[in-house]
Task: structure prediction
Amino acid sequence: MEILFLLGLITLALLIGLATLVIVGLVLVLIFIKTSRIIVPRVTLLVVSMMEIPIKHILWTFKINTKHEGQDRIDLMLAKIRNQVYTKHFSEIPMSQRAIFLPQCIRHAECPAKLTGEGIICIGCGRCEAAKIKKEAEELGCMFFIVPGSSFVKRMIAKHKPKAIIGLGCYNEIKEGTAMTSALGIPTQGVPLLTDGCVGTTADWDELRKTMRLGT
Result:
């Protein structure tokens, strides 16, 4: 009986602890939704990442809109926090050890580039901004890839072993990608797309260029 009582107390303590984390995470998310402020970034990142599913479920249940211009604000918040947390470490990595990953959706509908083992190889046709970014990346000494799929990023990390990464994508892709690279100990900066889609998406190219030059 004493063991069962002890197990009951432990279970109750765990449930209270989880409920507390959900409430704290919910408050932090609501503050961000209302004010765009991020309070205690590292704590927010830890709590919201752990409790993301129940927090989103509660917001959905109470019909609280978390979308902004088609993007989820929680994904936006987590992406912004990881950028902020890793900026200093990222800036200290030499250009030659940085890799830039662009999604294939930024290509023009008539892009003539071919898929290879190193991704989609831009031939500089000028139909989209990829050729300019590739040229600037190579001048800086960075590795450059156009990504055909998420598994490709993992293969290139394993093959080329970059020490820092820049990823262009939607907020959800940035959130998932930075979670993966942070688990590998690789400081990453995510630059969000301005529009979604399968082809011809747009981005803030000046922001990407600025991120490429962090630490210079």
Remarks:
- The first strand starts at residue 67 and ends at 68.
- The chain has two domains: 2-65, 86-212.
